[in-house]
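Let us work through a complete example step by step.
Step 1: write down the sequence.
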Amino acid sequence: QLQLVESGGGLVQPGGSLRLSCTASGFTLDHYGIGWFRQAPGKEREGVSCISAGGGSTNYAGSVKGRFTISRDNAKNTVYLQMNSLKPEDTAIYYCAARYVYCSMDAPDFGSWGQGTQVTVSS
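Step 2: predict the structure and record it as tokens.
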């Protein structure tokens, strides 16, 4: 069974930075595209960013483009989401998810999900 664990969330002031990690156990990430999603209270889950298995294809939601950067280190079996210039509207639970090879921003495309990590942006 594919298991994903997110970490790195927390409380940060507006304008601050966080780096989220998505680490796989029980399988290697080499052949999997990874998506980052978030869900704020009372809102639907939305795609934030994704990266293909080889890292050659990435995508970002318009609301985070230029502020967030997705990357992967297959040797560490980990995908990262560097989040800079954080805004209060970035507050949400952030999830990572895996699918075979390709990058996607659509949640139904993913079959394996982590448990999520809370990100709170507040002064």
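Step 3: interpret the result. The first strand starts at residue 3 and ends at 7.
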